Amino acid sequence: MLTREEIAARLDEAENAIRDGQVGSNPHEFIETLWAQVQGQTPPDLRIEVHDRLLELTGLLGIRSGSLAQERLGSPRWDMFLAALEDLPDATQDDSAFWRAVEDVKAPLLEGCTEECSAEIEAAVQAELNKRGLATLGDFEP
Question: Which of the two ends of the chain, N or C, has the fewest CB atoms closer than 10 A to its terminal CB?
C-alpha cells in the first residue's frame, strides 16, 4: 500500500506532466497506467479521495468515461452506499428513521451533482432498494 504522501506526490507529478504537455501521444495509456499504479495501491480510507483526484486528472486530459452520475455509480462512493444499506434501520419498525438513514447514506453520492446527475443517481438508489426488497416503487421518497 502507498502512503498518503506517496499518492499525493505521484498524482501531483502526473498533474504537472499533464499541464506541461508531457503526457506523450497516448493520453489514454498515460491515465490507465496512472490509475493502475495508484488506485490499486490505495488504502481503503483514501479510495474516495484518490478516485476523485484521478477523475480530475482524466478530465484535464479531456477523457471522460461517462457522466458524473455514471462515474459515481462505479466508484468507491457507490460501494460505500451498498455496504451502508446492510446497516439501515428496519423500515417496518420505524419508517421515518429508515428514510433518514437512506438520505444519510446516499448524500455522498449526490455531493456536487447537477439536477440531471442527481436524478440518475436517485434512480439507481431506488432500483437498489427495490432489488433488495427494502422499498417498493411506491414507497421510495427521494
Answer: N
